[in-house]
Amino acid sequence: MKYCFGIDIGGTTVKMGLFQEDGELLDKWEIKTRTENQGEAILPDIAQAVKAKMAEKKLVKEQIIGLGMGLPAPVTEDGIVQNTANLGWGYKEVTRELEELLDGMKVIPGNDANVAALGEMWKGGGKGHKNVIMVTLGTGVGGGIIVDGKCLVGAHGAGGEIGHLCVNYQETEICGCGKKGCLEQYASATGITRLANMRLAKDEKPSTLRNVAEMSAKEVFDAVKAGDEVAIEIATEFGKYLGHALANLAAACDPAVIVIGGGVSKAGEVLLDYIKGPFKEMAFFADKDTEFALAELANDAGICGAAKLVLK
Amino acid sequence: MKYCFGIDIGGTTVKMGLFQEDGELLDKWEIKTRTENQGEAILPDIAQAVKAKMAEKKLVKEQIIGLGMGLPAPVTEDGIVQNTANLGWGYKEVTRELEELLDGMKVIPGNDANVAALGEMWKGGGKGHKNVIMVTLGTGVGGGIIVDGKCLVGAHGAGGEIGHLCVNYQETEICGCGKKGCLEQYASATGITRLANMRLAKDEKPSTLRNVAEMSAKEVFDAVKAGDEVAIEIATEFGKYLGHALANLAAACDPAVIVIGGGVSKAGEVLLDYIKGPFKEMAFFADKDTEFALAELANDAGICGAAKLVLK
């Protein structure tokens, strides 16, 4: 039996998993992400954790197929990162540096959103399919596109930046990226909160949402489930923007299934109900029957997808 | 030396090419596409033409790597076509049927727009790159997306349907596909003519376009080159829709280069001038420096890309 490691580097913790070559997750654990001094300790810490786990499990280098890794930044196929928002790294040759620290063990890095999509294709909401779009509705909107079983990495390592598709050419407010009308402005947790506050300010229509201490996507979808009419209007607007964006993406990428993940997806199946209608209305005929699924792996999507990078 | 065939099936003619394995095109010719009787003669005609060429060039089966083929329909990776608009075929197992007719020679089919994009990546406007988007501005708007050197085929063989991205959610006229606001309504030859007629009807502003016998994309861009202000307004509107659509596509697919082909592209570099500005305005930051190029292979893109399907 051979083994591999799946690593998911976040701004706070590095999640790590040891997998058998047949895909079984044997062990998972976390270490702290030490971002100080331009994040110089991050890769050495990972290398040390990998070596310690190998010693603990009495594994030798020859038994390790390699180490896959998701990073919160665009990363090219040859393992170059130009910049990171959360790790402290500027230009960094991730593959070369970590392979040296691991005495030549094979390292394959990828963008974290793309890698999570690969994980969901392998073991989660996209299981059984080779063409998958995953959209992650969190503080922002992230995404990953899987084409024929592999991550769409792109020329600059920036494939799958679904959150920055323009869905409203009339928007006047500016997105965090500097553009206007990005999907992220309507479909992220922050975006849903923004839609909710705008709707409530529009008129005096009664709504339980007027009583919440702090507006959030969760409050909106809880109110939707309770039948609140204003909340339903907000969810309808959210679903229109997201459904239309996904229809455009499907015309380009023709997925078998679209997987919805991230914190907002905890609302459950009701979320999909609001997305499917507008998707179908705007989809190219060949894509109208594209399936929708909720993500299933939660925080394990990253380590699973990372392992899949090396298991192929 | 080994050889392969690249075949491009159109509604009127089948274009055929014989290539060396190093990519050199040795010979090209055409046969008629016989679409009568549900197109039952098309594949046998192709098989006969291939065998005749092999006899003429004294080639034996063992010297042929295979036969790649572009079709005007979505086609899945396993060679299934569900329907064609122009060939008379309904459900057809293209790979199996043609491999039988060719005594087991390897056949790899693909959608014609995707295959043309692969050709342009290999030998044309996208040469030297592995991530390419090609958009073909003809009667309609077609497209092909090349990811890491391979066609994005998709789950239903319908990847790269760029013409049916929605670029105007306020549109009231219906596209040929049944939706409203598709890129094809603004950026095809027909779409540019429509924009021109709408602009001319809006007011009485003088323009040389008011004197043309039959409005066309060529007339519009000829007038642009002559400095006609109304024509420049029309080209600006065309460029805004196409540039914005390509910016959305680039956020998803992160190409190194976007290749513009089809009849409209005969207008030349001036066309790119109108696309680049709106693209850059709407592009995600990682994609702002994406290159633009005109297609270079004209009618040979299909046979070249088809050959590349088998040469890998």
From TrEMBL, chains A, B:
GO cellular component: cytoplasm
Name of the protein described by the UniProt record: Glucokinase
A Pfam family annotated for this UniProt entry: ROK
PANTHER family xref list: BIFUNCTIONAL UDP-N-ACETYLGLUCOSAMINE 2-EPIMERASE_N-ACETYLMANNOSAMINE KINASE (PTHR18964:SF149), ROK (REPRESSOR, ORF, KINASE) FAMILY (PTHR18964)
One of the protein's GO biological processes: glycolytic process
Keywords from the UniProt entry: ATP-binding, Kinase, Nucleotide-binding, Transferase
Record's keyword annotation contains GTP-binding: no
Family of this protein: Belongs to the ROK (NagC/XylR) family.
E.C. number(s) listed in UniProt: 2.7.1.2
Example of a GO MF term: glucokinase activity
SUPFAM superfamilies tied to this protein: Actin-like ATPase domain
InterPro entries recorded: ATPase_NBD, ROK, ROK_cs, ROK_glcA
Enzyme class: transferase
